[in-house]
UniProtKB/TrEMBL annotation:
Highest taxon of the lineage: Eukaryota
Keyword Flavoprotein recorded: no
PROSITE patterns per the UniProt record, alphabetical: RF_PROK_I
Top-level taxonomy: Eukaryota, Viridiplantae, Streptophyta, Embryophyta, Tracheophyta
Species of provenance: Nyssa sinensis
UniProtKB keywords: Coiled coil, Protein biosynthesis
One of the record's GO cellular component terms: cytoplasm
InterPro entries per record: PCRF, Pep_chain_release_fac_I, Pep_chain_release_fac_I_sf, PrfB
Stated family: Belongs to the prokaryotic/mitochondrial release factor family.
Keyword Coiled coil: yes
Protein name: Prokaryotic-type class I peptide chain release factors domain-containing protein
């Protein structure tokens, strides 16, 4: 068995076998600016390790690299786990190769360095072959094998830079966080590292890894698929957790690679490379805030679409008008975020506004975001319906219901438990809508919960939409019962009055919108009423984190 190590000599790297007389030249232009030799190797009988030039035992490692076959030992039996004649091309080499192509305006073949940098996935290194041929006169000098992500232990060792700097080490350094406009890599790195730490905390990182191991054990059981429903649930959860873990690790690895490149650029006085790396860190810093928010939406139903219901409260016509304003606010918010919006049900007020309305919001994490809006919303303004121009206070209640997938519904509805009523649709809608009994109201007799729809042209479409709303309401009720959180999930709409509000919208005598749960406030109510709700949603989701969650 033989192993191969990359060694630097005379500004060139060679692949050394156990026979010291054999040296294979290896793309010197790829490595000329590396300050330290990337002495990484793969043993035929061991897992991948870092090898130091000094006679010390191998140290487990984790990261990305290329597994490359050497002509001295061309046989590779991957099916049996044997890795004869292989050596590892380190990730830093790939980064340097990408910079070489960029600096020399050469086309970078997708699947090589590009995918590695952007997606942390390595493609086949076929682009190396022409250069190898020019150097050695033969493709057999360095033949591509396959890409590999390697781990030296069961739970991979924490990623680090070439100098051993980790994310936790960056945080411990306590570097000052400057404004984004400041071109300081330590400031950017510290901000990103803190975001990664916070993301792991929100995901309950240790528990996530333990849960992932347990799910892996269950997936390997031979009798798992005897119960397809249970197996599907296990498989979906495993896939979801694996995706979250990989995304965090990839983000962490990207940060450390950019730090390596900045240090490398400064050693070589490469201003262009340093500038590119600083810009990449700045993009990561801005992107990290969005990733923090996504980590907040880790609940079982957060990724679902949802229904948003608005009901007018105390205040008569003024409150009905306010309810219509609230509903319009959510429509505009959903459109801002790129969600689809469909009006499911709407009951108009006698003079103005609406008594109640329901919209369907389609999009990933629609429920996760919108759940922050559940509660009573209070408006203070000079009423346009008061001839004396007096100040009025109005209320509207908001409920948000997740739309579970067909395989996730928790309540089976029997046809015998339903009472279906048909009636003429009210409000403007055309001659056909108002003269036929196309509107449908469905009541679930055992619970008394009902749903109605009158916005579609046909009775069949209205019935289908009403059933979807009813199913979601019953599912929500069941979830609340199981979690013993009825007050949170099925908030009563009967006490829509003073003292129960979550947010106040004041238009007179001053102008301000304030969330009473988080004290977050803005002085531009017009922008809020036009759908600019993300600040309120983000502050609530952050404040609602479990204060007793475990440390990392």
């Amino acid at each position: 068995m033989s192993s191969f190590i990359l060694e630097r000599s005379y500004n060139r790297y060679s692949v050394l076998s156990q026979n010291p007389r054999i040296r294979v030249p290896l793309l010197s232009f790829l490595f000329h600016s590396l300050s330290e030799p990337p002495t990484r190797a793969i043993h035929s009988s061991q897992s991948p390790h870092f090898l130091d030039s000094s006679p010390k035992p191998p140290v487990p490692c984790s990261g990305y690299g290329f597994l490359v076959r050497n002509p001295l030992c061309p046989t590779m039996k991957t099916s049996t786990g044997s890795q004869n004649g292989l050596f590892l091309l380190p990730s830093l080499v790939l980064l340097q190769y990408r910079h070489f192509c960029s600096s020399n305006k050469k086309e970078l073949v997708p699947g090589f360095g590009f995918h590695f940098l952007e997606k942390n996935s390595i493609g086949f290194c076929t682009h190396l072959l022409p250069t190898v041929k020019r150097i050695s006169g033969s493709h057999e000098c360095l033949a591509p094998s396959r890409s590999v992500r390697f781990f030296g232990s069961r739970a991979a060792v924490e990623p680090s830079t070439s100098e051993g700097l980790t994310v936790e080490g960056i945080i411990a350094s306590q570097w000052t966080i400057l404004d984004e406009s400041e071109s300081d890599w330590k400031s950017h790195a510290t901000s990103i590292a803190q975001s990664i730490h916070l993301i792991k905390k929100r995901l309950r990182w240790k528990k996530l890894l333990v849960r992932l191991e347990l799910l892996s054990v269950q997936l390997n059981k031979p009798d798992l698929w005897d119960d397809p429903i249970h197996a599907g649930k296990i498989s979906r959860e495993h896939g979801s957790l694996t995706g979250k873990m990989k995304e965090v690790k990839a983000f962490e690895q990207e940060l450390l690679e950019h730090i390596d490149m900045i240090k490398l650029a400064r050693e070589e006085n490469d201003i262009e490379l340093e500038s590119e790396s600083l810009k990449a860190l700045l993009r990561m810093r801005r992107n990290s805030k969005e990733k923090e928010l996504e980590a907040l939406l880790a609940g079982e139903q957060d990724s679902c679409s949802c229904f948003i219901e608005v009901q007018a409260g105390a205040g008569g016509t003024e409150s009905m008008d306010w309810a219509a304003m609230v509903m319009q606010m959510y429509k505009m918010w959903a459109q801002r975020r790129g969600f689809g919006v469909t009006v499911v049900d709407e009951m108009a007020g006698e003079i103005a506004g609406i008594k109640r309305a329901t919209i369907k919001v389609d999009g990933e994490f629609a429920f996760g975001y919108a759940k922050a809006e559940v509660g009573v919303h209070r408006l203070v303004r000079i009423s346009p319906f008061d001839s004396n121009k007096r100040r009025h206070t109005s209320f509207a209640a908001v409920a948000v219901i997740p739309i579970l997938g067909d395989g996730s519904t928790r309540v089976q509805i029997n046809e015998s438990d339903l009472r279906i009523e048909r009636f003429r649709a009210g409000g403007a809608g055309g001659q056909h809508v108002n003269t036929t009994e196309s509107a449908v109201r469905i009541t679930h007799i055992p619970t008394g919960i009902s749903a109605s729809c009158q916005n579609e042209r046909s009775q069949h479409q209205n019935k289908s939409s009403a059933m979807a709303v009813l199913q979601s309401r019953l599912d929500q009720l069941e979830m609340a019962r199981q979690a013993q959180m009825n007050a949170q999930h099925t908030q009563s709409l009967t006490e829509i009055t003073w003292g129960n509000q979550i947010r106040s919208y004041v238009l007179h005598p001053y102008r301000m919108v304030k969330d009473l749960r988080t004290n977050y406030e803005v002085s531009d109510p017009d922008s809020v009423l036009e759908g600019d709700l993300d600040g309120f949603i983000f502050s609530f989701l952050s404040a609602s984190l479990d204060k007793d969650e475990d440390d990392l």
